[in-house]
Specification:
Layout: H1 5-14, H2 30-33, H3 37-43, H4 48-65, E1 71-78, H5 82-91, H6 100-113, E2 118-125, H7 128-134, E3 142-144, H8 161-174, E4 177-180, H9 184-193, E5 197-199, E6 203-205, E7 211-213
Helix pairs in contact: 4-8, 8-9
Length: about 220
């Protein structure tokens, strides 16, 4: 069914979120999906061939980490490049972005949410160069997990751009927790992963009614 934004919000409030919804315009409206995460996760299916690629990535990260005992794998999604200019267009020049400091603070916080496990961070992004320079540090258990120039896959497996993005999304959805910045790609991956999620607090636009603070923590107890 094709619904307006306000009709979708009313469906969420009334607990009548449908199995199939054609979203208006381009927005993913993750605030609405967060009303029934269990249904969203039940209806969303991940491709088996991409899951096999993700298993290779996870196996490679765990082997490189060389940690004994229980491990909690936390996906870190870094949205940069074009999204920054988009946010400026929507929210103005004073909009704040998730910086290196945000990700480092979130990584420091995450082990306190899972005190009985060793936390290993797996980073994916369209800006691999920035991540490798600012975040990835295997000594500190922060690994690059994206398909772009992946150390865990043959070059032949990384040639398809669609497979790259599918792998990175499926990887986020397959881990134990999430640290995310901006965008519906990361929000959906974190919802599917479950566990603890730390997200950057940003004003998300609600069309026709000015900016609105999207705070999944209002709906999901494990979101910070």
């Amino acid at each position: 069914m094709d619904k307006s934004i306000w009709e979708l919000k009313k469906m969420r409030e009334d607990g009548k979120f449908a199995d199939v919804v054609v979203l208006p315009m381009w927005t993913a409206l993750m605030e609405i999906l967060s009303a029934d995460v269990k249904k969203f996760c039940r209806l969303f299916h991940l491709r088996s061939d991409v899951l096999e690629l993700v298993k290779k990535t996870i196996t490679g990260v765990l082997a490189s980490a060389s940690i004994t005992g229980e491990v909690s794998l936390v996906g870190v999604h870094v949205r940069r490049k074009d999204y920054h200019s988009l946010l400026i267009q929507i929210l103005g020049n004073n909009v704040s972005f998730a910086t290196r400091g945000y990700f480092k603070r979130a990584m420091k916080k995450m082990p306190t949410l899972s005190p009985d496990t060793h936390v290993v961070f797996v980073v994916v992004s369209v800006d691999r160069e920035w991540c490798m320079k600012e975040l990835v540090n295997e000594i500190e258990c922060v690994f690059w997990g994206g398909m772009e120039r992946s150390p865990f896959h043959d070059p032949s497996e990384t040639q398809n751009t669609l497979i790259e993005s599918s792998h990175d999304f499926t990887l986020l959805a397959s881990l134990n927790g999430s640290i995310i910045s901006h965008g519906s790609f990361a929000l959906a991956g974190a919802l599917l992963a479950g566990g603890h999620t730390i997200m950057f607090d940003i004003q998300e636009p609600v069309l026709g009614n000015g900016p609105n603070i999207f705070t999944p923590g209002k709906y999901l107890e494990n979101w910070k």
